[in-house]
Amino acid sequence: MDLHVSLEGRGDLTARIYRQLLDAILDGRLRAGERLPPSRELAKRLDVARNTVAVAYERLVAEGFLTARVGDGTYVSDEARVTAQTRRAPEGTDVRPRPVWSTLRGDLAKRGATYNFNVGVPDIRLFPLETWRRLTARNIRLATIGSGQYGEPAGNRGLRAAIARYAGVARSVRAGTDDVLVTQGAQQAIDLVGRVLVEPGDLVAVEEPGYPPARQAFQTLGARVVGVPVDVEGLDVAAIPRGARLVYTTPSHQFPTGVPMSLARRTALLSWARENGALIIEDDYDSEFRYSTRPLEPLQSLDRDGRVIYVGTFSKTLLPLLRTGYLIAPASLQSALHHAKRIADRHGETFTQAAMADFLDEGLLARHVRKATRVYAERHEIVLATLHRDFASWLDVIPSAAGLHVCTRLRPGAAVDIAAVIEHAASADVAVESLANYCGEHPAHAGLVIGYGGVPTERIEPGLRLIQKAFEACASP
Protein backbone atom coordinates (compact mmCIF):
# COMPACT_ATOMS: atom_id res chain seq x y z
CA MET A 1 0.00 0.00 0.00
CA ASP A 2 1.09 3.64 -0.38
CA LEU A 3 2.95 4.94 2.66
CA HIS A 4 1.80 8.38 3.81
CA VAL A 5 4.67 10.59 4.99
CA SER A 6 4.11 14.27 5.75
CA LEU A 7 6.90 16.83 5.54
CA GLU A 8 5.00 19.40 7.62
CA GLY A 9 6.63 20.61 10.83
CA ARG A 10 10.04 21.62 12.09
CA GLY A 11 13.42 19.94 11.81
CA ASP A 12 15.41 18.72 8.85
CA LEU A 13 13.64 16.55 6.28
CA THR A 14 15.55 13.38 7.19
CA ALA A 15 14.54 13.69 10.86
CA ARG A 16 10.87 14.19 9.93
CA ILE A 17 10.84 11.15 7.65
CA TYR A 18 12.65 9.07 10.29
CA ARG A 19 10.18 10.06 13.04
CA GLN A 20 7.09 9.31 10.96
CA LEU A 21 8.39 5.91 9.89
CA LEU A 22 9.32 5.07 13.48
CA ASP A 23 5.87 6.10 14.74
CA ALA A 24 4.23 3.95 12.05
CA ILE A 25 6.26 0.93 13.20
CA LEU A 26 5.65 1.51 16.90
CA ASP A 27 1.86 1.92 16.62
CA GLY A 28 1.43 -1.05 14.30
CA ARG A 29 0.56 0.67 11.03
CA LEU A 30 3.73 -0.86 9.57
CA ARG A 31 3.83 -4.48 10.67
CA ALA A 32 6.75 -6.87 11.03
CA GLY A 33 7.82 -8.23 7.63
CA GLU A 34 6.12 -5.45 5.65
CA ARG A 35 8.13 -4.05 2.71
CA LEU A 36 8.82 -0.31 2.52
CA PRO A 37 8.90 1.50 -0.82
CA PRO A 38 12.37 1.84 -2.37
CA SER A 39 14.16 4.98 -1.23
CA ARG A 40 14.25 6.32 -4.80
CA GLU A 41 10.47 5.86 -5.18
CA LEU A 42 9.63 7.49 -1.82
CA ALA A 43 12.01 10.37 -2.51
CA LYS A 44 10.37 11.03 -5.87
CA ARG A 45 6.91 10.98 -4.28
CA LEU A 46 8.02 13.42 -1.56
CA ASP A 47 10.01 15.56 -3.99
CA VAL A 48 13.20 15.34 -1.93
CA ALA A 49 16.71 14.07 -2.61
CA ARG A 50 17.10 10.31 -2.54
CA ASN A 51 19.83 10.59 0.08
CA THR A 52 17.35 12.31 2.43
CA VAL A 53 15.21 9.16 2.50
CA ALA A 54 18.16 6.77 2.42
CA VAL A 55 19.69 8.28 5.58
CA ALA A 56 16.35 7.89 7.44
CA TYR A 57 16.19 4.24 6.33
CA GLU A 58 19.80 3.63 7.40
CA ARG A 59 19.16 5.03 10.86
CA LEU A 60 16.15 2.76 11.36
CA VAL A 61 18.19 -0.21 10.15
CA ALA A 62 20.95 0.62 12.60
CA GLU A 63 18.42 0.78 15.45
CA GLY A 64 16.94 -2.60 14.51
CA PHE A 65 13.55 -1.37 13.31
CA LEU A 66 14.21 -2.10 9.62
CA THR A 67 16.11 -4.87 7.82
CA ALA A 68 17.83 -4.22 4.49
CA ARG A 69 17.98 -7.22 2.15
CA VAL A 70 20.50 -6.82 -0.64
CA GLY A 71 18.79 -6.91 -4.01
CA ASP A 72 15.38 -7.32 -2.43
CA GLY A 73 14.42 -4.21 -0.48
CA THR A 74 13.88 -2.81 2.98
CA TYR A 75 11.49 -4.50 5.42
CA VAL A 76 10.15 -3.89 8.91
CA SER A 77 12.23 -6.05 11.24
CA ASP A 78 10.65 -9.10 12.85
CA GLU A 79 11.94 -7.84 16.20
CA ALA A 80 9.94 -4.62 15.80
CA ARG A 81 6.68 -6.39 16.65
CA VAL A 82 7.48 -6.47 20.37
CA THR A 83 7.18 -2.68 20.58
CA ALA A 84 4.02 -2.32 18.47
CA GLN A 85 1.11 -0.59 20.17
CA THR A 86 -2.47 -0.09 19.03
CA ARG A 87 -3.03 3.28 17.39
CA ARG A 88 -6.09 5.10 18.71
CA ALA A 89 -8.20 8.04 17.61
CA PRO A 90 -8.12 11.25 19.68
CA GLU A 91 -10.13 11.20 22.92
CA GLY A 92 -12.50 14.01 21.95
CA THR A 93 -13.23 14.86 25.58
CA ASP A 94 -15.55 17.75 24.65
CA VAL A 95 -17.45 15.77 22.01
CA ARG A 96 -20.45 13.76 23.16
CA PRO A 97 -23.24 11.83 21.39
CA ARG A 98 -26.89 12.45 22.19
CA PRO A 99 -27.70 11.04 25.67
CA VAL A 100 -29.79 8.14 24.32
CA TRP A 101 -26.69 6.46 22.87
CA SER A 102 -25.12 6.04 26.31
CA THR A 103 -28.16 4.12 27.58
CA LEU A 104 -28.03 1.27 25.06
CA ARG A 105 -26.91 -2.24 25.92
CA GLY A 106 -24.93 -4.25 23.44
CA ASP A 107 -24.93 -7.97 22.69
CA LEU A 108 -24.75 -9.65 26.09
CA ALA A 109 -24.61 -13.23 24.84
CA LYS A 110 -21.51 -15.38 25.48
CA ARG A 111 -20.09 -16.44 22.12
CA GLY A 112 -18.07 -19.53 21.31
CA ALA A 113 -19.21 -21.68 24.25
CA THR A 114 -19.04 -25.46 24.03
CA TYR A 115 -22.75 -25.59 24.94
CA ASN A 116 -24.18 -22.67 23.01
CA PHE A 117 -27.82 -22.03 23.96
CA ASN A 118 -27.78 -18.45 22.65
CA VAL A 119 -30.96 -17.18 21.01
CA GLY A 120 -31.41 -16.52 17.30
CA VAL A 121 -28.46 -18.64 16.15
CA PRO A 122 -29.11 -21.15 13.35
CA ASP A 123 -26.92 -24.20 12.83
CA ILE A 124 -24.28 -23.11 10.32
CA ARG A 125 -23.52 -26.76 9.57
CA LEU A 126 -26.94 -27.06 7.92
CA PHE A 127 -26.24 -24.20 5.53
CA PRO A 128 -25.71 -25.56 1.96
CA LEU A 129 -22.34 -23.87 1.53
CA GLU A 130 -21.26 -25.62 -1.67
CA THR A 131 -24.56 -24.80 -3.36
CA TRP A 132 -24.23 -21.19 -2.25
CA ARG A 133 -20.68 -21.00 -3.61
CA ARG A 134 -21.89 -22.31 -6.95
CA LEU A 135 -24.69 -19.75 -7.18
CA THR A 136 -22.46 -16.87 -6.13
CA ALA A 137 -19.70 -17.84 -8.57
CA ARG A 138 -22.23 -18.17 -11.38
CA ASN A 139 -23.65 -14.71 -10.75
CA ILE A 140 -20.21 -13.15 -10.58
CA ARG A 141 -19.36 -14.72 -13.96
CA LEU A 142 -22.62 -13.54 -15.51
CA ALA A 143 -22.46 -10.06 -14.02
CA THR A 144 -22.26 -7.17 -16.44
CA ILE A 145 -20.42 -4.27 -14.86
CA GLY A 146 -21.74 -1.98 -17.60
CA SER A 147 -21.04 1.68 -16.96
CA GLY A 148 -20.27 1.10 -13.30
CA GLN A 149 -23.52 2.61 -12.06
CA TYR A 150 -24.94 1.98 -8.59
CA GLY A 151 -27.66 -0.64 -8.18
CA GLU A 152 -31.30 -0.06 -7.35
CA PRO A 153 -31.89 0.98 -3.72
CA ALA A 154 -34.86 -1.38 -3.54
CA GLY A 155 -32.63 -4.31 -4.44
CA ASN A 156 -32.08 -6.82 -7.22
CA ARG A 157 -35.32 -7.03 -9.17
CA GLY A 158 -35.05 -10.78 -9.63
CA LEU A 159 -34.74 -11.21 -5.86
CA ARG A 160 -37.68 -8.90 -5.23
CA ALA A 161 -39.82 -10.99 -7.57
CA ALA A 162 -38.63 -14.22 -5.93
CA ILE A 163 -39.40 -12.87 -2.44
CA ALA A 164 -42.89 -11.79 -3.52
CA ARG A 165 -43.58 -15.31 -4.80
CA TYR A 166 -42.03 -16.96 -1.75
CA ALA A 167 -43.86 -14.80 0.78
CA GLY A 168 -47.10 -15.29 -1.11
CA VAL A 169 -46.84 -19.08 -1.25
CA ALA A 170 -45.20 -19.81 2.10
CA ARG A 171 -46.85 -17.10 4.22
CA SER A 172 -49.92 -15.86 2.32
CA VAL A 173 -48.48 -12.35 2.13
CA ARG A 174 -50.09 -10.16 -0.53
CA ALA A 175 -47.35 -8.48 -2.56
CA GLY A 176 -45.95 -8.00 -6.05
CA THR A 177 -42.38 -7.38 -7.14
CA ASP A 178 -42.62 -3.60 -6.77
CA ASP A 179 -43.92 -3.94 -3.20
CA VAL A 180 -40.72 -5.61 -1.96
CA LEU A 181 -37.70 -3.68 -0.67
CA VAL A 182 -34.57 -5.74 0.03
CA THR A 183 -32.70 -4.78 3.21
CA GLN A 184 -29.58 -5.72 5.15
CA GLY A 185 -31.55 -7.96 7.49
CA ALA A 186 -34.67 -7.26 9.54
CA GLN A 187 -32.88 -4.69 11.70
CA GLN A 188 -32.29 -2.34 8.79
CA ALA A 189 -35.92 -2.78 7.74
CA ILE A 190 -37.06 -1.66 11.20
CA ASP A 191 -34.64 1.27 11.13
CA LEU A 192 -35.85 2.40 7.70
CA VAL A 193 -39.49 2.32 8.79
CA GLY A 194 -38.58 4.34 11.87
CA ARG A 195 -36.76 6.94 9.77
CA VAL A 196 -39.76 7.36 7.50
CA LEU A 197 -42.52 7.38 10.13
CA VAL A 198 -41.19 8.43 13.53
CA GLU A 199 -40.84 12.05 14.61
CA PRO A 200 -39.01 12.96 17.84
CA GLY A 201 -41.49 12.65 20.69
CA ASP A 202 -43.81 10.22 18.87
CA LEU A 203 -45.20 7.38 20.95
CA VAL A 204 -44.17 3.90 19.76
CA ALA A 205 -45.49 0.70 21.34
CA VAL A 206 -43.38 -2.46 21.50
CA GLU A 207 -43.95 -5.87 23.07
CA GLU A 208 -42.88 -6.45 26.69
CA PRO A 209 -40.83 -8.60 26.87
CA GLY A 210 -39.69 -8.11 23.32
CA TYR A 211 -36.89 -7.61 20.82
CA PRO A 212 -34.40 -5.09 22.29
CA PRO A 213 -32.87 -3.83 19.00
CA ALA A 214 -36.31 -2.73 17.78
CA ARG A 215 -36.92 -0.77 20.98
CA GLN A 216 -33.43 0.75 20.69
CA ALA A 217 -33.92 1.74 17.04
CA PHE A 218 -37.00 3.79 17.92
CA GLN A 219 -35.36 5.29 21.00
CA THR A 220 -32.40 6.56 18.98
CA LEU A 221 -34.85 8.34 16.66
CA GLY A 222 -36.22 10.26 19.62
CA ALA A 223 -39.43 8.28 20.08
CA ARG A 224 -41.11 7.68 23.43
CA VAL A 225 -41.11 3.88 23.56
CA VAL A 226 -43.65 2.08 25.77
CA GLY A 227 -43.79 -1.66 26.41
CA VAL A 228 -47.13 -3.44 26.01
CA PRO A 229 -47.64 -6.66 28.00
CA VAL A 230 -47.76 -10.04 26.28
CA ASP A 231 -49.96 -12.87 27.56
CA VAL A 232 -51.00 -16.32 26.29
CA GLU A 233 -52.75 -14.73 23.28
CA GLY A 234 -49.89 -12.42 22.36
CA LEU A 235 -49.81 -8.62 22.50
CA ASP A 236 -52.53 -7.21 24.79
CA VAL A 237 -54.22 -4.79 22.40
CA ALA A 238 -56.28 -3.21 25.19
CA ALA A 239 -53.02 -2.10 26.88
CA ILE A 240 -51.67 -0.15 23.90
CA PRO A 241 -51.27 3.45 25.11
CA ARG A 242 -53.49 6.14 23.66
CA GLY A 243 -51.72 8.20 21.02
CA ALA A 244 -49.33 5.50 19.83
CA ARG A 245 -48.34 6.15 16.22
CA LEU A 246 -46.59 2.83 15.58
CA VAL A 247 -46.77 -0.69 17.06
CA TYR A 248 -43.99 -3.24 16.67
CA THR A 249 -45.06 -6.86 17.08
CA THR A 250 -43.97 -10.45 16.32
CA PRO A 251 -47.36 -12.16 16.01
CA SER A 252 -46.42 -15.47 14.37
CA HIS A 253 -43.91 -16.41 17.08
CA GLN A 254 -43.69 -13.75 19.76
CA PHE A 255 -40.13 -12.88 20.63
CA PRO A 256 -38.99 -14.14 23.08
CA THR A 257 -41.95 -15.95 24.71
CA GLY A 258 -42.85 -17.95 21.58
CA VAL A 259 -46.63 -17.60 21.88
CA PRO A 260 -48.56 -16.96 18.64
CA MET A 261 -51.02 -14.07 18.56
CA SER A 262 -54.57 -15.40 18.51
CA LEU A 263 -56.85 -14.59 15.58
CA ALA A 264 -59.06 -12.54 17.90
CA ARG A 265 -56.09 -10.42 18.94
CA ARG A 266 -54.95 -9.99 15.34
CA THR A 267 -58.38 -8.75 14.36
CA ALA A 268 -58.48 -6.45 17.36
CA LEU A 269 -55.04 -5.03 16.59
CA LEU A 270 -56.00 -4.25 12.99
CA SER A 271 -59.20 -2.56 14.19
CA TRP A 272 -57.23 -0.55 16.73
CA ALA A 273 -54.76 0.63 14.06
CA ARG A 274 -57.59 1.68 11.74
CA GLU A 275 -59.47 3.55 14.47
CA ASN A 276 -56.33 5.33 15.76
CA GLY A 277 -54.66 6.09 12.43
CA ALA A 278 -51.64 4.05 13.46
CA LEU A 279 -49.34 1.61 11.67
CA ILE A 280 -48.06 -1.86 12.59
CA ILE A 281 -44.67 -3.41 11.93
CA GLU A 282 -45.16 -7.18 11.67
CA ASP A 283 -41.79 -8.90 12.17
CA ASP A 284 -42.06 -12.50 10.94
CA TYR A 285 -38.52 -13.47 11.82
CA ASP A 286 -38.52 -17.29 11.99
CA SER A 287 -41.94 -18.76 11.27
CA GLU A 288 -40.51 -21.14 8.63
CA PHE A 289 -39.61 -23.56 11.40
CA ARG A 290 -42.98 -24.79 12.68
CA TYR A 291 -43.35 -28.15 14.44
CA SER A 292 -47.08 -28.49 15.05
CA THR A 293 -50.39 -26.69 14.50
CA ARG A 294 -51.33 -24.75 11.40
CA PRO A 295 -49.80 -21.28 11.11
CA LEU A 296 -52.19 -18.37 11.56
CA GLU A 297 -52.69 -15.82 8.84
CA PRO A 298 -50.16 -12.96 8.92
CA LEU A 299 -51.53 -9.59 9.89
CA GLN A 300 -50.51 -8.34 6.45
CA SER A 301 -52.80 -10.80 4.68
CA LEU A 302 -55.71 -9.79 6.93
CA ASP A 303 -55.07 -6.07 6.51
CA ARG A 304 -57.45 -4.26 4.15
CA ASP A 305 -56.55 -0.68 5.10
CA GLY A 306 -52.80 -0.50 4.40
CA ARG A 307 -51.85 -0.42 8.08
CA VAL A 308 -49.26 -3.25 8.16
CA ILE A 309 -45.60 -3.20 7.18
CA TYR A 310 -44.37 -6.77 6.87
CA VAL A 311 -40.72 -7.54 7.70
CA GLY A 312 -38.93 -10.81 6.91
CA THR A 313 -35.36 -12.07 7.05
CA PHE A 314 -33.21 -14.96 5.88
CA SER A 315 -30.79 -14.60 8.82
CA LYS A 316 -32.52 -17.24 10.96
CA THR A 317 -33.45 -19.45 8.01
CA LEU A 318 -30.01 -19.57 6.41
CA LEU A 319 -27.12 -17.62 7.86
CA PRO A 320 -26.91 -14.31 9.79
CA LEU A 321 -23.74 -13.34 7.89
CA LEU A 322 -25.72 -13.05 4.64
CA ARG A 323 -27.49 -9.93 5.98
CA THR A 324 -30.46 -10.30 3.67
CA GLY A 325 -33.97 -9.34 4.68
CA TYR A 326 -36.92 -7.50 3.21
CA LEU A 327 -39.94 -5.37 3.96
CA ILE A 328 -43.30 -5.13 2.24
CA ALA A 329 -45.07 -1.83 2.85
CA PRO A 330 -48.31 -0.18 1.72
CA ALA A 331 -47.93 1.63 -1.60
CA SER A 332 -48.21 5.06 0.05
CA LEU A 333 -44.93 4.48 1.94
CA GLN A 334 -42.83 2.80 -0.74
CA SER A 335 -41.30 5.89 -2.35
CA ALA A 336 -40.18 7.29 1.01
CA LEU A 337 -38.73 3.93 2.05
CA HIS A 338 -36.78 3.68 -1.20
CA HIS A 339 -35.28 7.11 -0.53
CA ALA A 340 -34.45 6.09 3.05
CA LYS A 341 -32.65 2.99 1.75
CA ARG A 342 -30.73 5.05 -0.82
CA ILE A 343 -29.61 7.49 1.88
CA ALA A 344 -28.72 4.72 4.35
CA ASP A 345 -26.41 2.62 2.16
CA ARG A 346 -27.29 3.28 -1.50
CA HIS A 347 -27.97 -0.41 -2.19
CA GLY A 348 -27.15 -3.90 -0.94
CA GLU A 349 -24.55 -6.39 -2.12
CA THR A 350 -25.58 -7.17 -5.68
CA PHE A 351 -23.92 -10.58 -6.13
CA THR A 352 -25.40 -11.90 -2.88
CA GLN A 353 -28.85 -10.71 -3.88
CA ALA A 354 -28.59 -12.32 -7.32
CA ALA A 355 -27.49 -15.60 -5.75
CA MET A 356 -30.37 -15.43 -3.27
CA ALA A 357 -32.82 -14.95 -6.13
CA ASP A 358 -31.56 -18.16 -7.74
CA PHE A 359 -31.66 -19.93 -4.38
CA LEU A 360 -35.36 -19.11 -4.06
CA ASP A 361 -36.33 -19.69 -7.69
CA GLU A 362 -34.65 -23.11 -7.87
CA GLY A 363 -36.56 -24.33 -4.80
CA LEU A 364 -33.37 -24.62 -2.75
CA LEU A 365 -34.70 -22.58 0.16
CA ALA A 366 -37.77 -24.78 0.48
CA ARG A 367 -35.52 -27.87 0.43
CA HIS A 368 -33.25 -26.38 3.09
CA VAL A 369 -36.20 -25.44 5.32
CA ARG A 370 -37.59 -28.99 5.14
CA LYS A 371 -34.23 -30.48 6.09
CA ALA A 372 -33.52 -27.96 8.85
CA THR A 373 -37.03 -28.25 10.31
CA ARG A 374 -36.51 -31.97 10.92
CA VAL A 375 -33.28 -31.24 12.81
CA TYR A 376 -34.71 -28.36 14.83
CA ALA A 377 -37.90 -30.27 15.64
CA GLU A 378 -35.83 -33.03 17.25
CA ARG A 379 -33.89 -30.49 19.30
CA HIS A 380 -37.12 -28.73 20.28
CA GLU A 381 -38.52 -31.97 21.65
CA ILE A 382 -35.34 -32.78 23.59
CA VAL A 383 -35.28 -29.33 25.19
CA LEU A 384 -38.96 -29.47 26.15
CA ALA A 385 -38.75 -32.99 27.57
CA THR A 386 -35.63 -32.18 29.60
CA LEU A 387 -37.07 -28.95 30.97
CA HIS A 388 -40.32 -30.60 32.04
CA ARG A 389 -38.45 -33.51 33.63
CA ASP A 390 -35.48 -31.85 35.31
CA PHE A 391 -36.40 -28.19 35.85
CA ALA A 392 -39.99 -28.42 37.08
CA SER A 393 -39.02 -27.13 40.54
CA TRP A 394 -37.62 -23.90 39.14
CA LEU A 395 -39.02 -23.09 35.70
CA ASP A 396 -42.37 -22.91 33.95
CA VAL A 397 -42.05 -23.58 30.22
CA ILE A 398 -44.02 -21.26 27.94
CA PRO A 399 -45.60 -23.46 25.23
CA SER A 400 -44.31 -22.85 21.70
CA ALA A 401 -44.45 -24.75 18.44
CA ALA A 402 -42.05 -22.83 16.19
CA GLY A 403 -38.71 -21.12 15.98
CA LEU A 404 -35.26 -21.80 17.39
CA HIS A 405 -35.72 -21.19 21.12
CA VAL A 406 -37.84 -22.00 24.15
CA CYS A 407 -38.74 -19.41 26.77
CA THR A 408 -39.17 -20.18 30.47
CA ARG A 409 -40.25 -18.15 33.50
CA LEU A 410 -39.05 -18.61 37.05
CA ARG A 411 -41.76 -20.38 39.05
CA PRO A 412 -43.43 -18.37 41.81
CA GLY A 413 -41.65 -19.11 45.06
CA ALA A 414 -38.55 -20.59 43.45
CA ALA A 415 -35.67 -19.26 45.55
CA VAL A 416 -32.92 -18.91 42.99
CA ASP A 417 -31.08 -16.00 41.40
CA ILE A 418 -31.22 -16.37 37.59
CA ALA A 419 -28.18 -14.09 37.12
CA ALA A 420 -26.16 -16.33 39.44
CA VAL A 421 -27.32 -19.42 37.54
CA ILE A 422 -26.16 -17.92 34.23
CA GLU A 423 -22.80 -16.96 35.69
CA HIS A 424 -22.33 -20.42 37.22
CA ALA A 425 -23.25 -22.07 33.90
CA ALA A 426 -20.79 -19.81 32.05
CA SER A 427 -17.98 -21.13 34.26
CA ALA A 428 -18.83 -24.59 32.87
CA ASP A 429 -18.63 -23.22 29.29
CA VAL A 430 -22.41 -23.03 28.87
CA ALA A 431 -23.98 -19.98 27.23
CA VAL A 432 -27.62 -19.29 28.09
CA GLU A 433 -29.58 -16.03 28.21
CA SER A 434 -31.77 -14.35 30.81
CA LEU A 435 -35.36 -13.42 30.00
CA ALA A 436 -34.63 -10.12 31.77
CA ASN A 437 -32.37 -9.14 28.84
CA TYR A 438 -35.49 -8.83 26.69
CA CYS A 439 -37.39 -6.58 29.08
CA GLY A 440 -37.37 -2.83 28.73
CA GLU A 441 -39.76 -2.16 31.61
CA HIS A 442 -39.14 -2.79 35.31
CA PRO A 443 -39.45 -5.01 37.20
CA ALA A 444 -38.13 -7.36 34.54
CA HIS A 445 -39.39 -10.92 34.08
CA ALA A 446 -37.17 -13.64 35.58
CA GLY A 447 -36.45 -16.75 33.53
CA LEU A 448 -34.25 -18.29 30.87
CA VAL A 449 -34.47 -18.16 27.08
CA ILE A 450 -32.90 -21.31 25.68
CA GLY A 451 -31.85 -21.37 22.04
CA TYR A 452 -31.21 -24.71 20.35
CA GLY A 453 -30.34 -23.65 16.81
CA GLY A 454 -26.62 -23.30 17.40
CA VAL A 455 -26.02 -26.26 19.69
CA PRO A 456 -25.47 -29.72 18.16
CA THR A 457 -28.19 -32.21 19.05
CA GLU A 458 -25.83 -34.48 20.99
CA ARG A 459 -24.77 -31.58 23.24
CA ILE A 460 -28.25 -30.48 24.29
CA GLU A 461 -28.82 -32.91 27.18
CA PRO A 462 -25.26 -32.63 28.58
CA GLY A 463 -25.50 -28.84 28.37
CA LEU A 464 -28.88 -28.75 30.10
CA ARG A 465 -27.50 -31.02 32.85
CA LEU A 466 -24.83 -28.40 33.51
CA ILE A 467 -27.54 -25.72 33.75
CA GLN A 468 -29.43 -28.00 36.14
CA LYS A 469 -26.30 -28.24 38.31
CA ALA A 470 -26.08 -24.44 38.22
CA PHE A 471 -29.64 -24.22 39.57
CA GLU A 472 -28.80 -26.70 42.32
CA ALA A 473 -25.69 -24.75 43.26
CA CYS A 474 -27.47 -21.37 43.31
CA ALA A 475 -30.81 -22.35 44.89
CA SER A 476 -31.44 -21.13 48.42
CA PRO A 477 -32.51 -23.68 51.04
What does this structure look like?
This protein is of the alpha/beta class and 477 residues long. 39% of the residues lie in helices and 14% in strands. An 8-stranded mixed sheet has the order 4-11-10-9-8-5-6-7, sandwiched between helices. The protein has a 4-stranded antiparallel sheet with strand order 12-13-16-15, with helices on one face. It has a two-stranded antiparallel ribbon with strand order 1-2. β8, α8 (263-276) and β9 (279-284) form a beta-alpha-beta unit. The longest helix has 27 residues, at 364-390. The termini are far apart.
Topology diagram in text:
Layout: H1 13-26, H2 39-46, H3 50-62, E1 66-69, E2 73-76, E3 115-116, H4 129-142, H5 157-171, E4 180-183, H6 185-197, E5 203-208, H7 212-220, E6 224-231, E7 234-235, E8 244-249, H8 263-276, E9 279-284, H9 299-302, E10 308-313, E11 325-328, H10 331-345, H11 350-361, H12 364-390, E12 395-397, E13 405-410, H13 418-427, E14 430-431, E15 433-434, E16 448-451, H14 457-474
Parallel strand pairs: 3-14, 5-6, 5-8, 8-9, 9-10
Antiparallel strand pairs: 1-2, 4-11, 6-7, 10-11, 12-13, 13-16, 15-16
Concise account of the structure shown:
Helix content is 39%, strand content 14%.
Main features:
16 strands; 477 residues; 39% helix; alpha/beta; globular; four-stranded antiparallel beta sheet; eight-stranded mixed beta sheet; 14% strand
